[in-house]
Amino acid sequence: MLYKLYVGCVAGRLTEWLMSNKVLSPCQKGFLPADGAFEHVHTLNRVLEKAWTHAADKCVAWLNVSNAFGGIPHPALEAAIERSGAGEDFLLAVRDIYTGATSSVSVAGGLTNDIPVRSGIKQGCPLSGLLFIMAIDLQGESVDHRVLAFADDLCLIADSPGELQASIDAAHSGLDMLGLWLNAAKCASLHLSGGRPVGVRDTQFLLRGSPLRPLAEGEAATFLGAQVGFNVIPPLSTLAKTIAIGLRIARSKLAPWQRIDELKTFFYTSTFKHRRAVMRTVRDTLRLKRSDALIAKPDQGRAVECVAVHSASSHFLRDGDFTRFADWRFVHRARLNLVPLNGSSSWRAGDRRCRRCGQCWANRNLIND
Predict the structure, then answer these.
(1) CB–CB of 311/302 below 8 Å?
(2) How many H helices and E strands in the chain?
(3) What is the pTM of this model?
(4) Whether residue 317 has pLDDT greater than 50
(5) In angstroms, what CA-CA distances link 219 with 7, 125, 223, 283?
(6) How confident is residue 35, by pLDDT bands cut at 50, 70 and 90?
(7) Distances in Å between the alpha carbon of 346 and those of 81, 300, 324?
(8) Which carries the bigger pLDDT value, residue 119 or residue 274?
(9) How far apart are CA 136 and CA 84, in angstroms?
(10) Which residues touch 149 (CB under 8 Å, ≥6 apart)?
């Protein structure tokens, strides 16, 4: 009890000193009074939104530090205190806390001998979090939002794949000097391009030669409790759970009136409770399928690109003066032979005469005539 009161007072003074003297990088928000998690998630979402609205590229990497709190060596804590300028008295106090620390394990035959603890911070200690962020602090510029850090949760942002790969290598080198290492299997990356076609690029990033998991469109990475990605679709677990409840009741051997009663009690209440999440999941799934089907069309985007190049037709795209909507919709597709005429559509049954003159031109190219 006395120990926690003592370190609690020290932690309060240390927090005030760190904030007032701006010792930590503005990118580090962990264990500080401000709501840094909300700020980082909002910043990351805004960065991705600006990428596809301003036709720019953004590359993001989410890094997972393996056993960060238990693997930080004690000399790294002391080095961080000396580097910050906290003073000799504070350094001696922390050294007294961690010097000679031991641990024992309870086994069937009793307690083991004392095991010296030379790395890791004390769990439940008010001072531990502050010492950790002082040691792991990555000096980055908050103006450009290149690094978003919340304790051991790291997010790197870059404008190009080469820049992000260099940031990943630098982060790996810095953490390796502290005795920490990144787990490539739990890391993820995202390359979002605002250029046409807007979407996710399948770019591979490496960590010690191991590839990071690239996020596809609709997939998300969990960053500070939030799902972040491009066109993220909510998980289908809510919808699947609701459907499973209904199917189990419908396939049960209960009497009809009992099934109705169970549906009212369990199925309908579950649907009502999660109706927004269920409908959002269904809408987003259908929207993604429509987008994929549209992108897969062989003529997708080509009409606008070809017409924009032609000097005689560029005014249709800029202002549309002296052009009816019907003409505007017709002329671009007609020039590229994308308008199905009555006589040229072999799959169309019925009247195959020309819409204008009424003659049957079969498969002749009316546009050139």
Answers:
(1) no
(2) 14, 14
(3) 0.63
(4) no
(5) 43, 37, 13, 16
(6) confident
(7) 79, 22, 29
(8) 119
(9) 12
(10) 25, 27, 28, 29, 30, 136, 137, 138, 140, 155
